[in-house]
Each structure stands twice: as structure tokens, then as C-alpha cells.
What does this fold into?
Amino acid sequence: CEFDLPSYHFWLHRESVRRGADLSAWFAPLLPIRDASSIVLKLLREGGKPVKHVARQGAFSQMLGGKMSQMVRIRLPLDSQFLPEISANRYALNVRFSTFGAEPRPRSSEADVEFELTFCNL
It folds into this structure.
């Protein structure tokens, strides 16, 4: 690192208080964008009505029939062991739930999964 990026190496070896101050100074111009994005996302998330569904054997499909949305939101219980994988186009929404185990890759769930689905719009 010290050979390829000497200035980064120098910065990494400065005291942590100074590095923290540098990071704060670098991120400060981005804070208004973060705040504005947070407001827009909050309004968008609140702009829909959640509907309860069950993914039979970990799979759920819904035809959209021309229904347009700016964001799809899936809510699971906090203690859920499932990870949703979403695929959508203008005609259909597909959700497949996976689980993690000892294998390095997620495995498709064979259990029924209860979840809430919200189509969000401003």
C-alpha cells in the first residue's frame, strides 16, 4: 500500500481523531443529499398499503395488470430466516425466498413464508 498509494498510507497512519475529522469534512457536503433522499424515501415508503401474502413453498408470483409503482416493499418479521429475491417487469412480480445454511450459497426455501407486500407510490 505504501508503494502504490503513499498519500493514503500516510493518511492511514495519522492519529484516529484526525482521520475522523477528515472523514467528517469529506462527507459534510453530501449530508443535504442524504437528508433529502431520506425524506423522499420516507414519503415513498408511506405511499402504499401493505397487503399480507403467503409464498407457497417459498415462491410468490403476482400479475401486475398494468399496475405501476415506483417501489416494491417486502416486510418480514425481524426474526425471519428468509431472504427475499425479487424479480419484476411491467407484467409480473416474482418473489423467491431463500435461506442460509452451512453452504456458501443461499438455498431456496421449501416452507410457506408469510410476508407483507406494498406497492409504493408518491
